[in-house]
Design goal:
DNA polymerase, domain 1; Helicase, Ruva Protein, domain 3; alpha+beta; 21% strand; OB fold (Dihydrolipoamide Acetyltransferase, E2P); 3 domains; 206 residues; 46% helix
Length: 206
């Protein structure tokens, strides 16, 4: 199972990236909500690291491997929750997630059918099913504010504060969050952004 991919962006498409990994190119589907943060995350030479959801799409008698990319584990966690709704597969979820994940989660939590029905491929019945399945379960994602794209030029103390703010919004206790951040930086001293810290925190918690 491919859980992460790191390489250089070779080609961009409206809904996917082609990433070169040591001469081998992989096509990675990217939800629109995630695609908006790509430019803030990749380096000047096009290098990028994505958390991936790996599944097999059944096509007649064969199984086709498919990768879906995310900038951090929190986005992936929401995606995995979203596809637990009956009839919402990975590809449908990729098309539907056009708004910020925090906005979608907030709409689910308050049962806002109008917002959910504005998502591509989500009609009235599917919106009702999403609310029935996920309401009360995705509140922490509504608090994300979607500010995971720290500027790599800011000082480490600033990105620690940014990461702490995100973890507090996700309902971690302050002492617990500070410990998680310190351990993440100790494990990976080359961390240079809030996103790096959050990814390392989630790796360490598994």
């Amino acid at each position: 199972m491919i859980s992460q991919i790191s390489g250089k962006i070779k080609k961009r498409k409206p809904s996917s990236l082609e990433i070169d990994v040591n001469g081998i190119s992989y096509e990675v589907l990217i939800p629109p909500a995630v695609m908006k943060g790509i430019d803030k995350t990749c380096l000047e030479d096009g290098s990028i690291s994505l958390i991936t959801y790996h599944y097999y799409q059944m096509d007649q008698s064969k199984a086709i491997p498919v990768l879906v990319g995310f900038l951090n584990e929190i986005e992936k966690d929401f995606f995995e929750q979203f596809i637990t709704v009956s009839g919402v597969g990975p590809k449908a979820a990729c098309r539907a997630l056009t708004l910020a994940i925090s906005d979608i989660a907030a709409a689910i939590d308050r049962g806002d059918m109008a917002v959910l029905k504005s998502l591509p491929g989500i009609g009235d019945q599917k919106a009702r099913e999403i609310v029935a399945k996920l309401q009360g379960k995705v509140g922490k994602f509504a608090l994300m504010q979607d500010k995971f794209y720290g500027d790599i030029s800011v000082g480490k103390e600033n990105i620690k504060e940014e990461a702490l703010s995100v973890l507090l919004q996700l309902q971690y206790k302050k002492n617990e969050a500070e410990t998680m951040i310190d351990k993440a930086i100790k494990r990976n001293p080359k961390i240079s952004s809030c996103e790096d810290i959050l990814n390392e925190v989630y790796r360490g918690s598994k």
